[in-house]
Amino acid sequence: MASRVQIPTNNSALIAMIADEDTVVGFLLAGVGNVDIRRKTNYLIVDSKTTVKQIEDAFKEFTTREDIAIVLISQYVANMIRFLVDSYNKPVPAILEIPSKDHPYDPAHDSVLSRVKYLFSSESVASGRR
Amino acid sequence: MEEERQYSESGEESQIQELDEEDQKLQHQCQLPGAEEKLVLQFMDSMHSYLSLFDELSSALRQGWFDLASARHSMGASRVNSSLLDLKFHPAATTLKITNSDGTQPSIILRKWVSSEHERTQLEDENVQPQDSSSVKSSAEVTMAKNFSGLADNDEIQKERSKSLSVFGVLISPKLRASQLSFERALETLIEIANMRSSLLYSFHQLQKVEDSKEL
After folding, report:
1. Structure confidence at residue B6 (pLDDT)
2. Member of which family (chain A) (predicted)?
3. What is the DSSP letter of A5?
4. Distance CA A97, CA A99 (A)
5. In this model, does residue A45 exceed pLDDT 80?
6. From the CB of residue A12, how many other CB atoms can be counted at a distance below 10 Å?
7. Least confident range of A111-115, B103-107, B119-123
8. Contacts of residue A94 in chain B, CB cutoff 8 Å?
9. Most confident of B9-13, B78-82, B198-202
C-alpha cells in the first residue's frame, strides 16, 4: 500500500528543463530561466555532444533540488535515461516528458501512462475473472 | 531527550493512524453503490484530459518552434542562439506556486512575469495585512483554471517580456515576439498537464487500493 508523502508547499518554485536548444531558448523567452549566485542554471541544453552521464547528472540534480517543482524533459532525451525516469516516483518535482521538433510525443513511452496502463492489460482483466 | 522521543513517537503514531483512517474511509466509500464506477470514471476522465492537453501542447510548441525558426531566418543564426543566453545571476520571472490544499495531491499555480520588485512589494503587503480569504482572492496569484498571468499591471508584464527578449538585441523580429507568446501558451498548458498528471496518479492509486482490498 502506497504511503502518503509529505508535499512541501513553495511560493516561488522553478521549472527545470533538459531539452534541445530551440525548446530551451523558447521557454527562456517565456521567463523561466534562473541563474543563481553560483551561476548554476535550471536548464541543460542537449545536443549531439551531450553525454548520457551529463543528462543523468542533470536529472538527478534537478529532481533533488527543493526549489524545482517541474522538470521538463524532451521525450527522446528521457528515452536515453529511461530506467532513471521510470524509477522516479515522487510527486514533486513532477517530471513531464515533452515532444521535440524531430520527435513527436509518443504516449507509449510516457512514464506516467506506462505506470497506469496495466489497468488496461488483458492480464489484469483475466485475473479479475478468476 | 526522552520527552522529545515520546513526542516524535506519538507524531509517527498519529501519522500511521491518519493513514489507517484514510484507508478505512476509502473502503467505506467503495462499499457505497456506484463508488468504484465513479473512481473508474474519474480515472478515465483524467487520462482523456491528460492526452488532450498533450495535443494542445504539441500544437503550441510547433508554433513556437516555427516562429523561432522564422526569427532566426530573418535576424540571422548568430543572433538567435543559446550562446547569447544570460549567465549572470538573475531570478526567474515566471515561477510556480505549489499548494497542498486538499492534503492529497499537489496543486501547481503559474505565476507569470512576476518581477522581483513586485514580489517584494507583495510580500510586504501580505505581512502588513491580516491573512483572510478576501486578501488571498485579491492577490496577484490566480489559479490556472482562470488562465490569468500572475501580475496585475499590464505595463509590468510588457516590461518583463521586453527584458526577456533583450537578450537577443534591441531590434528583434516580430516572429521572436510571436515565439515568446507561443511558448507562454505552451507553459500554461504544461501547468494544466502537471495538475492533471497528479489527479490521474491519485485516481490510479485509489483504484489500486480498491483492487488490493478486494484480493484480501
Report:
1. 52
2. Belongs to the V-ATPase F subunit family.
3. P
4. 7
5. yes
6. 16
7. B119-123
8. 106, 108, 194, 197-198
9. B198-202
- Single-letter amino acid, residue A10: N
CB contact under 8 A, B106 and A92: yes
pLDDT tens by residue, B83-111: 888 778 888 889 999 887 666 778 899 99
- Side chain identity at B128, as an amino acid letter? V
* pTM across the whole model: 0.77
Instruction: Give the type of residue at A42.
Output: N
In this complex, the residue of B57, B111, B113 whose CB is nearest that of residue A98 is B57
- What percentage of chain B exceeds 90 in pLDDT? 26
| β partners of residue B32 | none
Q: Which of B62, B93, B79 is nearest to B173 (CA)?
A: B79
B209 interface with A at CB cutoff 8 Å: yes
Torsional sign, CA B48, B54, B60, B62? negative
CB contact under 8 A, B201 and A30: no
Q: Which of B196, B156, B89 is nearest to A70 (CA)?
A: B196
Contact residues for A81 (Cβ-Cβ < 8 A; gap 6+): A52, A55, A56, A59
The residue among B39, B53, B58, B65 with the most chain A CBs within 10 A of its CB, best to mutate, is B65
User: Any chain A CB within 8 A of the CB of B41?
Assistant: no
